[in-house]
Hints:
Elements: H1 9-30, E1 35-38, E2 47-51, E3 56-60, E4 66-67, H2 80-107, H3 116-143, E5 154-157, H4 159-179, H5 181-187
Antiparallel strand pairs: 1-2, 1-5, 2-3, 3-4
Helix pairs in contact: 1-2, 1-3, 1-4, 2-3, 3-4, 3-5
Amino acid sequence: HLLGMRTPTVMIVGLVLCPCGILLTLTGTLAPNWRQVSLIPNQPIDLVWEQGIWDTCRERQSSHDRLCGQADELGYFEQLPVRVARGMMPTSLVLTLLGLVVAALGVRCWQKEPRHLLAGVAGLVLLLSGLISLIPASWYTHELWTLPTPAGSTLVVGYSLVLSYLGSCLEILGGLALTLSFHHGCKD
Length: 188
């Protein structure tokens, strides 16, 4: 049958979304901008702190002078949502890489038929990796305003947190698409 010669759409969707997801999650994990603290009392009006899960940077908006590796005087990095994110985000990245390797083996390119079971397993791994990065991103967002910050300062969500969210969602959608390969595998 000729239908077996083409790569199924669900596999293509999974293999497009998941690499995009890992790039966004990687950027979100490494970039120090899960939240921005501004209008800090007794500090220059244009000073902004960018806090990630590994580093805090301070930047003067007027001159773009940026300095990372700031001392954590308020115990920000000791907070549970930050510590959990430090464990779960890298775990998610490793699982995503593993899932993509298994997906590549399952989807084929060098063989006549896709391995539906293998692609389905890859989908489950990728779905799990997306959930593992979604949990800390969601928890951090929920606790964003309770994490320690100078009294009276203004807080906003940083781009790293947004990218982590988007990456997680793309991995979950891509993983779900690949798990649909199980359906085809069961029909054979």
